[in-house]
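RETRY 2/3 - previous attempt timed out on the joint model. Re-submitting the same 1079-residue input unchanged.
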Amino acid sequence: MLISIGHVTRYTYALPATSSIYTLRLTPPTFEGQRILSWRVEMPDIQQALRYRDAFGNICHLVSIPRTHSEIAIIARGSVETQDKSGFVRGATEVSPTRVYRRQTDRTAPDESIADLVAGLKSPDRIDKLHELMQVIGERVTYEIGATNAHTSAVEALKDGRGVCQDHAHIFISAARLMGLPARYVSGYFVTGGDTASEAQHAWAETFIDGLGWLGFDPANQLCPTDRYVRLACGLDAASAAPITGNRRGGVDEVLDVFVEVQQQSSAQQQ
Amino acid sequence: MDWQSGRKLQQQEQTSLKVGASLRKAFDEMNGAGDGVRAPYTAVSEWLGTQKLDDLKRKLLEAETMFRRTGITFAVYGKEEAAERLIPFDIIPRIIAAAEWRRLTAGIEQRVRALNAFMYDIYHRQEIIKAGKIPEELVISNSAFVPEMMGVEPPLGIYSHIIGIDIVRTSENDFFVLEDNTRTPSGVSYMLENRETMMHMFPDLFARNRVAPVDDYPENLLKTLASVAPRNMDGEPTIALLTPGQYNSAYFEHSFLADQMGVELVEGHDLIVKDGYLQMKTTQGPRRIDVLYRRIDDDFLDPLVFRPDSILGVPGLFDLYRAGRVSIVNAPGGGIADDKAIYSYIPEIIKFYTGRAPILQNVPTYNCRKPDELKYVLDHLPELVVKEVHGSGGYGMLVGPTASKAEIEAFRQKLTSNASNYIAQPTLALSTCPTLVEAGVAPRHLDLRPFVLFGDEVRLSAGGLTRVALQAGSLVVNSSQGGGTKDTWVLQD
Amino acid sequence: MLGRTANDLYWLARYVERAENMARLTEVGYRIVLLPRDGDGTHEEWRSTLASAGCAQGYFSKFESLNTRDVINYLLFDFSNPSSVKSCLAAARRNGRAQRTSLTRDMWESLNSAWIEFSNIDPASISAGELPRVLDWVRSRSALYRGALLNTILRNDTFFFSQLGTFLERADNTARILDVKYYVLLPQIEMVGGGVDAVQWAAILRSVSAHRSYRWVYKENYKPWRIAEYLILNQAMPRSLRSSYDEISVALNDLANLYGARAACHDTVAATRALLANGNIDDIFQSGLHEFIEDFIIRNNRLGNEVAEAYHFNG
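RETRY 2/3 succeeded.
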């Protein structure tokens, strides 16, 4: 599938910031089933950005704006060609041994409720079990915007029973790690189908299965990623896989606007 | 009162101690096992015999006045506005013979190389885990393990360039490493200032002993820092020391070291990431920094990566480090090597990376996370020292032989409910050294922290910080718990 | 050098100078209220002392009336007064501690011991008779610090920023004393009794330690316009606006040479210094002493801001 993506993030301040700095994980990687045809990140001072790969293999840019400003817009756009690999991610650049992804974080730390979730899984087969986990999470936590926030943990979301894709992914990761499996958080884009562009910015989980490799699970949509998914960045949780992490000095009353448009491209458009 | 009556007093005190039998037999640095003055102490012992107690006490006051005027103070956490206290100083030096020091040096060097090889491995291929020498979970789930460090290539492959190794002695030939400090060890300014004060007050003592100098430390530190500058940089590296500021307990040391090395002492808000480099804001505009000797904890280094609320660090610093634009000394994530849960594996670590047996012994350690070892610990609490895995500064520990029944029971509860948070060790009969106390000269337990530097080579100044427990019978030497310090002499042949 | 270091050194010097000035003002005020006089002139004297010290507003937000004990406590020991001697010494030491590596051992020890000793004084234990001793002590500690600075510090930016702080503060202080007392100096207005005038004139000179040197320079009795001329235009008088600006000018030129760059502050200092060097006291009185001083204080503040800007005091 040919997918075109436009992703605009805009920060505005009532009182200007004296400086700000951003880590961007806004460059999708190439691996089996995902090829980048064109990609551009635009923002002030991006030419001076430091480009490097982080501990989870993401291509990062560090962009520093060392002057007073009251608005910053970060625009990423391009087109990506994808193939359905039944959710398997192969050929991606890996920096850390997979066992590192067994580490729980503040957001994924399990408690009895996650342990009960795992204990309740009935499937004998290890992959079936993960599918069952994905399904149970979708049933237990209904999709609702605004019930949780960026700092909500897996345990909190499970208890509340409401959340968004980030919460679904955290619960899945927490449970998978509790089962002894390496698991990671993936942020990316999703072609929702039709003309709608809702939840085009998406997140899901991946878990490592011995002998098979990394396999994606999207509890929010109850499926393993297909060619409608574009992987952007991964990490131990939403924080370390965030497309944009920023810090500023000064700057009062920040307003954040995010606009994401993901569309299937016809091959005619592509030419 | 002369030195002889001091000896008598010492004997009285010892018989009155209600501590384990092992402690009563503590090896004394000056008097050995009670069989006469040991060779390195000959001259000091003679000198002490000629001193009057009142004179010694006056000298001690004089020393304290010197320290206070210099401003060599430290803050005590949790003590409101007590802000600046002096660490008590003792004027009777702790003396190490040349041959003893050679052995310690060999052991320290071996240890420092192995610890750094371990860190490199942990933050790359993790061969030691694959080889089954260390349980995976102990590393991966350890809060001291910093996953963001995976794949970082620090210059020369070194993570902890400055390590303070806490060593205790139990007999003529038995030295044990109590712990390694691979994060941001402090105390070296006391090593230097104690010597300065002693030379000022007792020049005659130095005339009668061949004491190796320690004042090469700042220069060694500067050489070490320069040697780990980013690769491919031209010219002399610019070095700066990052402090949390003047309200930090070790601020004096930070400013002292910056001054001794002639480098800028910077705070987080003096620094900014600009044009892809770390820059400090000078009177002439931004100026690039190549090597940052940081004395703030990992958590506060960079709000983009670690604690987002930190205002002590510099946003973007970690990314620059990762990209090789600046060197951070010591590297983030070094805590994995001095974690108390990892400690018991250090002999294994040394063998794995050096292929040799450790020269310096570890204290036998019970990992309470292992059920059989926990059982032993619970059965023998009155004999053991129990420590929190992530504690420091002597807080949150139980010294079995001197603890009350209630304290022991309280620890039993803690151990039962959260076993993996604790380790236990036998109570070592730390060596003692004659120390000036209110009633005269009496033996007090002590340890030794040499500060070793590792860059293009291993550099070790001949000495260290000797910490002494000023309470009779106490084994807790930490300054935050009322411990004092002594000048540490390494004699030359 | 870090911008923050320059800022701290500058303020360290200002606070040491300010502590000394506070002690001096307190001493003069106290001396005047001791004088026998008709009625109760005490209050008015303290009012003008507080005004000269820039502390009047703060004092009256805390106390309703002018009481000698309250005023002295407020000027010397009150931490809620940011200009009290105690606040100044604490701030000076805090700045010094933050820049411990820039100071010589002599400088640091004089600063540190001044703070330790002063903070140990119990205000309640200071009787009227002991006050002069305490005030002398403050002045001597300031002199000790200045002496340590002049004798031990390298003549580089550390020294230059310290000089800037000292002399900007000093010029500000002298100007403020003149401004508050200007009515005493106005020749047109006949004050009540000649005796009081002489006392007031002496007080102005005394508050800048110039009551004896005046006689050496002018060989005549106190004359209002002479006093004004002495404090504003005299090049030899070490607390005059003119000599303060000579020192500031030297320090800023030294900085320009060291860094190889000039900034707006260099033009400002040159202009103000020219005003003082070419000034004439008759013209100043003609166009208004108060207006002249007011203008000077504005220029002085602007210079401070331009220095902070030029040398990145705030990063």
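Confidence is low (pLDDT under 50) at residues 189-193 of chain C. Closing ticket.
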